[in-house]
């Protein structure tokens, strides 16, 4: 199409350092001419005025179609506008607005690359808009250009830090986790978040500060490490700090600020206050159930979940109790977790069954289907476990596939199906980077202690993976194992007792015991 060709030409110039106005101006008609007669001059002027007016009519029409959500026709109309040399005569603000609006039309039409190209152009103007940079970041990510996505998002942080409370926190974490561990772009993103004093209601900023502390430690910047660790307040992030020799010079293990139990208790108090201030926010209540699980306040977690779910059920359909009702599946998930730890296994199972029957973000409930399968595995009910995970569908993340195959491994071993067990373990081994803790737990379930020890030592030797492995190795509060987990629990104890594992730990850190529940993701 003609419009796309002209746009591609402009993009090429923009990427070479020439702004879009220059790109289109090179093709623009001359703004003045020398005429031999007044009649010719007047006619030329009149023609130019008519062309300009008609061009602006077409531009107005494109914007009108966009406002009416006539995406396809608006997309075509904007393409034709961009192909017209007169586009270069518009003000920078008008050009940027048109490019931005056209980009949104392309998004709505699932033309991801075209949308990305349009937003790249829109963000090249001096008066670029934060929404354009934000959308560009998402589009770059969807096109597997993670560094470009992080660069665009960093622009938002550095130029408009006051907007950080409005961004989707999950996008920050997926950028942080997708970028290469030693990438300068990753460090710049983390530092920009730090300089902007990013703070989340759910406590997710602590993970970013831990990542920043590790990055600074690997670069030998102890002043930077000390600054980062002062903001870390998640209990398990603090466990990582305390167990890792890299941070010995940066923390005081005896200080209350670095005590995981005190941090967990502070988190409960903070979330109690926040839920009172935002009574229609179900996500905060869900986060509070997690915090209560961490400190072992299981009765309180069940009571909070009951109140929240009753409010969902009893509210009028035109006046819902919460603005984010989709979080109810996770409230139910955590209610089941608390019931399990209270020894009320039948009630826990019934709640997980109910949770798995609800949708997740409007689609198939992958998470609760997999969690239900995990619970059935722990209960030594392999047939039910397989039936549960079969309802997860095909739209499963890499980590979800790891959980799925761990359940398949468990069910196969419980059923005596050796070939199926080998197949599941082979998948887990080949995709271990998608979920290293899941892989390690699968090795314990399969009784592969030598391989498990090798996995532990590899992760401890890796600057990137060390913190996660040290966290996994620590001692936490645990409920009595369910029948299907007894052997795996014993295998873990045998792994920790191995001299080669203990020697590997001693080189980089230490193993301690903490009066908190360390794993709120499994039963």
Automatic annotation (TrEMBL):
Sorted UniProt keywords: Signal
Disordered: region residues: 28-49
InterPro entries: TPR-like_helical_dom_sf (IPR011990)
Gene3D superfamilies membership: Tetratricopeptide repeat domain
Cell wall biogenesis/degradation is among the record's keywords: no
Record's signal peptide: 1-25
Protein name (database record): Tetratricopeptide repeat protein
Source organism per UniProt: Lysobacter niastensis
